[in-house]
Amino acid sequence: MTETSPRRLKGRSYAETRSAVLDLIRSSASISRVELSQRSSLTEVTISKIVKELLLEGIVIEAGFGQSTGGKRPRMLKLNTGVLYAVGVRLGVSRIVIVLCGLNGKLIERVDLPGIGDEPPPEVLDRVVAAIQGVIEARGIWRESIVGVGVASSGRRRGPLGWGADPEAAQTWESFDTAAELEGLCGVPVLVENDANSVALGTFWSGGANASSNFMTVYMDQGIGAGLVIGGAIFRGASDNTGEIGHIVVEPDGLECWCGSRGCLETVGPPRGIVRRVMTDEGLAALFDDQKSGDEAAIYERVLAGLGEGLPQAEALISRSVRSVATVLLGLANTLDLERIELAGPGFAATGQRYMKELKRLIEKASFTRGVHTIAVELGGTGPDVAALGAASVVLHSSLTPHHLTA
Question: What is the greatest pairwise CA distance in the chain?
Fold first, then answer.
């Protein structure tokens, strides 16, 4: 929807107003002081004061001249990506990914480590801290230039099942205060965020989205979840657990889910659900796990290989997943009146185009708002670092634009 007049960005305090102005600079490739005043409905005096502070702190720099509108050519402003940095960490069972990003959330460097496995949390964090310090020292970055460390993790918040379907990890990590321990080791602020929320905020921050954006990012790795951004902020719900779409029931008589229900999307849609289908069916197990290894990653790779070879059993498994995920997302699009849905994460790496095509088909056919507005469906990042990049953006979002932290 197009706004007929600029939205006034004056906050309840000067800090909020400054935060909103910086957010406007962030979401623009470059912008002049006059444009900032026009788009924020703030006075040029207020804009001048805020910009002067941001320039002195090095957060913003002047970047050439814009087009003249009759007078002097205006000086353009943009984020200074070479003065402050954020670190993002994705703690995974099989892989840990660490990234270093500039103020724009773009990747500068990445390090991969072995996953947490059954290693005690303190030992895992020692490895993580050593890797972070190695990256910082190699780049010649002062510790004071690190805004903070963001950690993306899976599962439920404020409950005993924070690591979802992995009960051993849940028992080990739930009682361990990752943020406090890592902060003590690193000496910089640490924020722990749900992986889907991290990816959604990463899309908002590094993609240049503006503060009026309303969209959902669906993150699929081994499991599936969603991050919902409303007005530039994550919508969290009563206990920070909005977005657990993996526990929407799609097959009432289906397999039992670890959450206690039956036939959840988690048991059908993501790679972990597909692998479980294989392991609970003798015929499928003989085809895709003939060595009875129980190796989830290897089984899923065999399913994908079978899909490429045209095996009907592999096609049936993937098609079932695609239909289930797309149907759930159509329901959410109708319920939430979304502008955009992004599909992201390693779970979409091999077959993301199929999910996107089916979701677009359903939206065009059955979206409640068709004819009123379009719903964009996009395939976002599908690499193993997408959640870590999002976690770094969480830190930047929290530190630099705190005026819209929560919806």
Answer: 77
How far is CA 35 from each of CA 195, 231, 335, rounded to the nearest angstrom?
Answer: 35, 21, 36
Nearest to 229 by CA among 253, 205, 255: 205
Same domain, 249 and 374: yes
CA distance linking residue 94 with residue 10, whole number of Å: 46
Do strands 376-379 and 107-114 pair parallel, antiparallel, or not at all (unpaired)? Answer: unpaired
When divided into structural domains, the chain yields a total of: 3
What radius of gyration do the chain's Cα atoms show?
A: 23
Q: What is the pLDDT of residues 349-381, one digit of tens each?
A: 999 999 999 999 999 998 888 889 899 999 999
Given 32, 63, 79, which residue is the final one in a domain?
A: 79
Instruction: Check whether residue 106 and residue 33 sit in a common domain.
Output: no
Q: Does residue 235 lie within any of the structural domains? A: no
Which domain, by its residues, includes 61?
14-79
Please, is 194 exposed, middle or buried when counting C-beta atoms within 10 Å of its C-beta (0-12, 13-18, 19+)? buried
- Whether residue 354 is contained in a domain is answered as yes
* 19-31 pLDDT, tens digit each: 889 888 888 888 9
Q: In the chain, what are the helix, strand and coil shares in percent, each to the nearest 5?
A: 45, 20, 35
Are 226 and 332 within 8 A, CB to CB? yes
Look at residue 159 and tell me whether its pLDDT is greater than 50.
Answer: no
**DSSP assigned state of 67:** -
Judge if 90 and 71 occupy the same domain.
Answer: no
Give the C-alpha separation, 267 to 250, whole Å.
9
- 75, 79, 82, 84 alpha-carbon torsion, rounded to 10°: 140
CATH of the domain at 294: 3.30.420.40
170 and 270 assigned to the same domain? no
